[in-house]
Amino acid sequence: MAQRIDLHxxxxxxxxxxxxxxxxxxxxxQGIDVAALTDHDTTSGWDEARAACARLGMTWVxxxxxxxxxxxxxxxxxxxxxxxxDPDLLxxxxxxRDDRVWRFETMVDKINADIDGLSRDFVYSFHTEGxxxxxxxxxxxxxxxxxxxxxxxxxxxILAPENDRYFVGHYAPTIERAIEVVVGAGGVPVFAHPWxxxxxxxxxxxxxxxxxxxxxxxxxxxxxxxxxxxxxxNTPFGRERLAxxxxxFDLIITGSSDYHGEGMKPVLPGAHTTAPAxxxxxxxxxxxSEIVWA
Length: 294
Hints:
Layout: E1 5-9, H1 20-29, E2 34-37, H2 46-56, E3 59-70, E4 73-80, H3 87-112, H4 120-124, H5 135-145, H6 151-156, H7 175-184, E5 188-191, H8 209-222, E6 226-230, H9 236-249, E7 252-255, H10 276-285
Parallel strand pairs: 1-2, 2-3, 5-6, 6-7
Antiparallel strand pairs: 3-4, 4-5
Helix pairs in contact: 1-2
């Protein structure tokens, strides 16, 4: 039986709601054999996740998800097998995390001006010390107050980038710079969920097919190694286009759940997976850190 591989999971070290240990336990319960922890702009959960995988008999893959920007919009870049001590990686991830604090508190203050009870102290009560601050924490507070019914609803309405009254951006390197950092740290850069309907991506109606292909080609020239094709938020048409683009440029194709824990995105580990042959390409290309094989 082929191994089941999920290369995009989040814990309380960034914007997930479960510890690295529990995330790996859930992945194991869902039949995952190979798992990567890819918290936003941090590798602080690696040791715990690695130990959990060793205990559970799973293969451990070190990863990170960089916040980045593309044409001024927020996008994400997955980096596998990076060196966690690389100076450029530490600098860029640190700048992003630091700016997230200002952005987080500014958004909370804006919303609290209209919604009683959403004070900084209240929202921080949903935050795990040391974790990356982000909109999911605000969303959980809004759910607790009964303002919205779910985290997804909060993202679709109050916390949506289109909501100029509340949304605030944060520092992030360009995706070109993020690719450079991941490659420089010995890692394998994979564009996360690049063709969605409701968040920034390359699925833009103002671009022709040839223009979109050219944009991906330019990123490949910078070192982009793969595309996260099989992801819940990519549109069906987008998955077809991404698969064709991956074939055109001989890119690695990944699939994953982007699991954030119970009560967050309604997707469990293994909802989408990466083919073993594609995982082998990642394993062969990364030099910054090591996979721990089961």
